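Re-run requested by the PI after the first attempt was lost when the workstation crashed. Everything re-entered from the original request form. Ligand of interest: uridine 5'-triphosphate.
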Amino acid sequence: MSKPVRTAVFPVAGLGTRFLPATKASPKEMLPVVDKPLIQYAVEEALAAGVETLVFVTSRNKRAIEDHFDRVYELENELLEREKPELLERIKDIIPRTAASVYIRQSAALGLGHAVLCAAPVIGNEPFYVILADDLIDVPGKEKNVLQQMLDVYHEYDCSVVALERVPHDHVSRYGIVQPRKVDQKIFSIESIVEKPTSDEAPSDLAVIGRYLLMPEILSCLEKTGRGRGGEIQLTDALELLLSQNPLLGYAFEGKRYDCGDKLGYLEACMEFGLKHPELKEEFKAYLLKRIALLDR
Ligand code: UTP
């Protein structure tokens, strides 16, 4: 019987340089897609997958994340007095009281691997998720979100699982790329993994994207991992170490990912979520159609 996955780690301590100046004083993860910040989408995904402990690995300038998930009594009273119950519902208890939130500070941006290692005292000896909020994943028409899909794979194989997506060959240098061996339609056994290879070095076009379900053994691998590409402690390098002793599966998830750490990906997400937003969709679609008609003029 595989253990339940109750903890999710949200590394939010990166510098967000691709989004400067927007991220100079406020975190990338607080960028809104229509009316919710990226980090809230990620937290809701984790809660839906049964997570009970949310671990945020933060840094300077990330206070807004803590504040966002805290209660704001003045605003709640104001909305109550103005008889706005729907708005009140939207801001209250985004994280239910049954779940615990833990904030851990990463004192220097030494890389994603280092950020995950900072959460080790909370993770203990349990499997856990790592969720990168800037990869926003939509699963229209699907019953299960991406974490729930990965959980099914984990329950079947009882090992670490990372989310995979096929990327254009000229984009491989932006990702961790795996050498896969097909197990079934969507599941791959990972033979090796390399961080940001050149297109000549890349063992495939299958990239690891921002969802991981990891066995606690990854933590001792992270302890042994030195600085890798870009001088950072890379989670990819620790995964390479892990798979020399333990199986590691890749899962080509069902859903659409928006790379919201990138300006173009972020704009695409805003557009798609705007087009399906219950309050906006009709007017926004009418605006877009009008706007597109003017594009070639
Ligand atoms: P990115 O590679 O997207 O880096 O990190 P970044 O700093 O956020 O953004 P750019 O590239 O400078 O624009 C992937 C994830 O790892 C976290 C980031 O917050 C992001 O969620 N991270 C990265 C940390 O928590 N700590 C680090 O030291 C590095």
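Saved to the shared folder this time. The two ends are 63 Å apart (CA to CA).
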